[in-house]
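Weekly modeling sync, notes
Attendees: S.R. (lead), two postdocs, one rotation student

Agenda item 3: backlog of single-chain predictions. S.R. asked that every request posted to the team notebook include the full sequence so nobody has to chase files. The rotation student volunteered to paste the first one in as an example of the format we agreed on. Action items at the bottom.

Example entry:
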Amino acid sequence: MAQAATTFSDRLGGKLRRMARDGFSLHELLYPLNRSPARHAVKGLVNLVHWRSKQARRASARDLTSHGELDAPLASLQNEGHADLAGLLDSEALAALGQGANELLTQSAAIEGQQLQDNKRYWLRLLDAEIAAGRLDEQSPFVRFALQPRVIELVT
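Predicted structure, as returned to the notebook:
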């Protein structure tokens, strides 16, 4: 005799009976709820409960100061996914970064064979050897570029 397919309410009822008998776990209750048609009601209820704190976070975000000349690149980064920072960053550090990247790209065939992960062949990790050997210090063009005050201001 074939057993009838269980519905969500049957599973939830069984889960609630077991939780009442064995003990209560909020995660065990929310897991099936968040995978059911009731998830939208649960999200609405949680948003309603935390409404004041969300409004306070939004108000504090509006009060943040402007970044001045970084506003246009930040908007471009948010809307288009990239931004031109050439005029805002140190040109010497940018040139050293380009030269360091070109040197690594000439060695890319050898680096590709040493990859730690081979499930993403399109993702070539060029700095693994430098990190493993401890050569990625403050003299590295990549570190010097990343530690520029403008770059730090942009990413924070």
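Discussion: group reviewed the output briefly. DSSP finds ten helices and no strands in the chain.
Action items: rotation student to repeat for the remaining queue; S.R. to check formatting next week.
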